[in-house]
Amino acid sequence: MKASDLLVKCLETEGIEYIFGVPGEENADFMMSLEKSSDLRFVLCRHEQGAAFMAEVYGRLTGTPAACLSTLGPGATNLITGVADANMDRAPMLVLTGQGSTKRLHKESHQIMDVVKMFEPVTKWAETVVHADTIPEIIRKAVRVARTEKPGAVLVELPEDVAKRDTAAKPISPIRYRRPQAAPEAVEELANHIRRARRPVILAGNGCVRKRASNELRELVSLTGIGVLNTFMGKGAVDPDAPECLYTIGLGTKDIGTCAIDAADLVIAIGFDMVEYHPHLWNPEGDKPVVSIDFLPAEIDEHFNPQCELVGDIADNIAALVKAFKEEAAPDFDLRQQAATRGDMQAELLEHASNDGEGPVKPQKVLHEVEKLYGDDGLLLSDVGAHKMWIARHYHCRTPNGCLIPNGFCSMGFALPGAIGASMVDPERDIISICGDAGFLMNVQEMETAKRLESNITVMIWEDHAYGLIAWKQDQEFGHHTDLAFGNPDWRQLAAAFGWHYQQVEAGGELPGVLQAAREHRGPSLILVPIDYRENQKLTERLGELTCSI
What we know:
The protein is of the alpha/beta class. Helices cover 40% and strands 16% of the residues.
């Protein structure tokens, strides 16, 4: 068979379902082969970056890679931001790029660039197919590497002349395997560290919302009573209604949750990635005792030096800890400060819940209403901007991966295409994206993709006519900000042009009805909210005066 046919067969054998992308001349053979597949669905996108974000969210929600596809040169460079975001946020992904003929790769030639070298820093593995017979091995390795903890992106490049060659090679059937568990002695050593502590606290990261880990974590905290602070990407690891939930940490400044770490005599980091919330922000002297449970050994850092590590499958290792504490009762910890932390944060969450007045709406009010509709089993995707900080602090979901926030690479433009990818996973799920007016327009062209697919999604824009997060940070450091203002389109006309349902909020009291109408609408829906970002500076001032309870 032709090499491009074999590549499709290998992807089918791996169970790949979706390829999101923008094709070109150099991958035309692959597209012709793909067209004949009954198992693979190609989703035509309007920009390669949007395609990468769709594949990223599919991978984060399912644990199985989807593919994003581009041609060579500018198509590949357009992919790279979304690929880097997926790789740093631990989403399994296949990146498929075309390339010119191998007869011209060694010299200056039209659109030729070294795609593999460009992608090496933002992928787990990147390789060119130079011989058709190697396709089964390359695809088997690519999927295995992408899925292996910690998951990430893998690039496979197929030159146009190689795609046309004949081959007698056959796909390799995948063999799945379980990750190892730490040795019993290591489990007992870490359990003893916890037993000796008086005020332990758990820091739950991205790894806690994958691979059954959340269920085991919930049992551990229920058994021991130890409080849990989740990172931006660890939301849903524990139920926010559980008394052990201390909500989210990671704002980049001292916050209520930081008090729980300040008071702790042991931090139990579980599934924690350094990119989520650097330890120098919560362990500035490097003297806070830390233990770690993760898929890989901890990154070397002077502020994060675990005294004990359980390396291997997180869920299995937490289950082993649960067993240890069932056999010998957990100590009588002093968790009064953690209870105070939870109480103080609950008061903050409810402060603006009844703010129904006219004019710009407070971020806290918006998220209170969104959580009531989407917090149980819906999905919220956050773009990057000032709204992300409010979502991280004030939105809490009851299911793992019920809130997706890009917080490793932190790329703007994520949430609209990400919602489309999420709708491919579960078309009946209630899905809402919250974007700033800046981030939304970075991939606005995917509104057409959403309408063509009739994606059942709601996108909410928080409008402030500026790069609000940059203004917030400049104000904090310099006392003022540079010119960051811009104009916006007529949102109603924009929605109409793409065939989207549209609503605009004029007062906080309208939010419940507007959200419900959008949720009930079949197809894509746009909501515009004029947002009161005066709350940014108020929060900064309030946290600057923060004193910890007890």
